[in-house]
């Protein structure tokens, strides 16, 4: 796929990983970022409210991978 945006490809790859293992992730209620379950404070907005429902995480991962994102998938920060 020579004309694929590499950033978009990377995002799609992460999203697939999250979709396969939603139990390892949760969604920040402050900024919609997806973070690892073990994270207690969001690295982006310092919120401590998360939604860890697996279906919600999967939906959010697909949502983030399918558009130009304004929020960050922060799993690699940990
Ligand atoms: Zn946040």
How would you explain this protein's 3D organization?
There is one protein chain. With 78 residues, the protein is of the alpha+beta class. It has one domain (6-77). 35% of the residues lie in helices and 12% in strands. It has 2 helices and 3 strands. The chain has helices at residues 6-20, 54-65; strands spanning 25-28, 34-36, 50-51. It has a 3-stranded antiparallel β-sheet with strand order 2-1-3, with helices on one face. Strand 1 (25-28) and strand 2 (34-36) form a beta hairpin. Helix 1 packs antiparallel against helix 2. It is globular and about 40 Å long. The mean pLDDT is 85. Zinc ion binds next to loops.
Task: Please give the number of β-strands.
Answer: 3
Taking pLDDT < 50 over at least 5 consecutive residues as the criterion, the unreliable ranges are none
Radius of gyration: 12 Å
How helix-rich are the residues, as a percent range?
25-40%
């Amino acid at each position: 796929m020579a004309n694929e945006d590499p950033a978009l490809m990377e995002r799609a790859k992460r999203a697939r990983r999250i979709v396969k293992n939603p139990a390892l992730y949760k969604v920040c209620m402050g900024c919609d970022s997806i973070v690892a379950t073990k994270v207690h404070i969001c690295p982006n907005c310092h919120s401590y409210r998360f939604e860890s429902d697996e279906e919600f995480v999967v939906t959010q991962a697909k949502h983030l991978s399918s558009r130009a994102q304004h929020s960050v998938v922060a799993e690699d920060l940990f």
